[in-house]
């Protein structure tokens, strides 16, 4: 292959300098979920100090938001049984405002408040069966369980983010109506969430369905308060995000290296990789504020922590010197 061939690999990582014609398309916020959604699925327990190291590496790479852990029941998610210690490490520190933690109920919020978490994330499924399997509650029961969480957060000035899981399809019920997704999103925002993140928990979404989901949700709430949380099971997460960008979504969840999965959603694989997303956004002319070299170093660290190569293609290319 000659150097002039359009198929020749670029001499240097092309993520740092977007083509001038595409530059300045505005800011996109990446909400990093690797330490929570990624590590929750790991069989081998990652020691607390190493989890903290990963969160620090991601903050250091410039990711504006990092979901650091999860205050669910340790029997349900043993990999994050040290949530209290992980969060306490950052209490009152300079990055406390940039961290969030998953919380399923008032008991989880109590634990998060002990560590002075400034932001928590609640989660509701768009289907009844997934909600039951995931948090052992009907959706009506879960809404009731969230009420005191929203009230307590409002009282102590903490922010609440909300997920709508299985928004593109449910592993138990199959297709989920986009109108139902929109109704759940609107209800969670109405309860006091500052942002709702639509989760393709098992990564079944495709660009056409994504357009329909966003049209339905955008008909009920402003897409400026909507994030997308794509898993990459079928390799379509980036394409779905491109549809989201066109529709006006400007917040995307991603996981370092593509770590991840939901233990209560059979078939769920890793999240969209942060490196793949940053690389694409940068080439499209969107600003993320992420330092590419430090992000690759965080990806290398994540691989070290779980003891295997992670699926992010951009990370692999960067580590191979691409
Ligand atoms: P349960 O067994 O129904 O709980 O579990 P309960 O309310 O009946 O309480 C039983 C005992 O657990 C009590 O203790 C509670 O105090 C205690 P006892 O009185 O018997 O001594 N308990 C807790 N302990 C610690 N932390 C808590 C807590 N809550 C109750 N927070 C529960 C209900 C919600 C706790 C359980 O089902 C659970 O933890 N589920 C979490 C499942 C999970 O983490 N799934 C993965 C995350 S969701 C996801 O990945 C999707 C997402 O990424 C978006 C997407 O991809 O779409 C967000
Ligand atoms: Mg997820």
Cα gyration radius (Å): 19 Å
Strand order of the largest sheet: 1-2-3-4-5-6-7-8
Separation, N- and C-terminal Cα atoms: 16 Å
Number of helices: 12
* Beta-strand segment tally: 8
Explain what this protein looks like in three dimensions.
The protein is built from 12 helices and 8 strands. Strands 1-2-3-4-5-6-7-8 form an 8-stranded parallel β-barrel, surrounded by 8 helices. The chain is 41% helix and 13% strand. The protein is globular. Helix 3 links the parallel strand 2 (65-70) and strand 3. Residues 1-12 have low confidence and may be disordered.
From the structure above, extract its key features.
single chain; 322 residues; alpha/beta; 8-stranded parallel beta barrel; disordered N terminus; binds 3-hydroxy-3-methylglutaryl-coenzyme A; binds magnesium ion
Topology:
Layout: E1 29-32, H1 34-38, H2 48-60, E2 65-70, H3 83-90, E3 99-102, H4 106-114, E4 119-125, H5 128-135, H6 139-156, E5 159-165, H7 178-191, E6 195-200, H8 207-218, E7 226-230, H9 237-247, E8 251-254, H10 274-284, H11 292-306, H12 313-319
Parallel strand pairs: 1-2, 1-8, 2-3, 3-4, 4-5, 5-6, 6-7, 7-8
Helix pairs in contact: 2-11, 7-8, 8-9, 10-11
The structure holds 3-hydroxy-3-methylglutaryl-coenzyme A (HMG) and magnesium ion.
């Amino acid at each position: 292959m000659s150097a002039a061939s359009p198929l020749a690999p670029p001499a240097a990582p092309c993520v740092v300098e977007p083509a001038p014609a595409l530059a300045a398309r505005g800011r996109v916020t990446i909400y990093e979920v690797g330490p929570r959604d990624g590590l929750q699925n790991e069989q081998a327990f990652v020691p607390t100090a190493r989890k903290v190291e990963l969160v620090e590496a991601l903050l250091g790479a410039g990711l504006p938001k990092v979901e650091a852990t999860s205050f669910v029941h340790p029997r349900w998610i043993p990999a994050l049984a040290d949530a209290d210690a992980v969060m306490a490490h950052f209490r009152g520190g300079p990055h406390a405002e940039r961290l969030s933690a998953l919380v399923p109920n008032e008991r989880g919020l109590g634990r998060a408040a002990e560590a002075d978490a400034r932001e928590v994330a609640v989660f509701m499924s768009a289907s009844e069966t997934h909600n039951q399997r995931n948090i052992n509650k009907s959706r009506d029961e879960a809404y009731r369980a969230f009420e005191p969480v929203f009230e307590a957060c409002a009282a102590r000035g903490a922010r609440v983010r909300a997920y709508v899981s299985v928004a593109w399809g449910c592993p138990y019920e199959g297709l989920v109506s986009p109108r139902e997704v929109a109704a759940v999103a609107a209800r969670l925002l109405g309860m006091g969430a500052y942002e709702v993140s639509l989760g393709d928990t098992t990564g079944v979404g495709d660009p056409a369905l994504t357009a329909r989901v966003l049209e339905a949700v955008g008909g009920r709430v402003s897409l400026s308060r909507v994030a997308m949380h794509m898993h990459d099971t079928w390799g379509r997460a980036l394409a779905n995000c491109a549809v989201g960008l066109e529709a006006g979504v400007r917040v995307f969840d991603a996981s370092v290296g593509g770590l991840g999965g939901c233990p209560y959603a059979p078939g769920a694989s890793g999240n969209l990789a942060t490196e793949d997303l940053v690389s694409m956004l940068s080439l499209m002319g969107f600003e993320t504020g992420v330092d590419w070299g430090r992000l690759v170093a965080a990806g290398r660290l994540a691989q070290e922590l779980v003891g295997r190569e992670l699926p992010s293609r951009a990370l692999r290319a960067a580590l191979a010197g691409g």
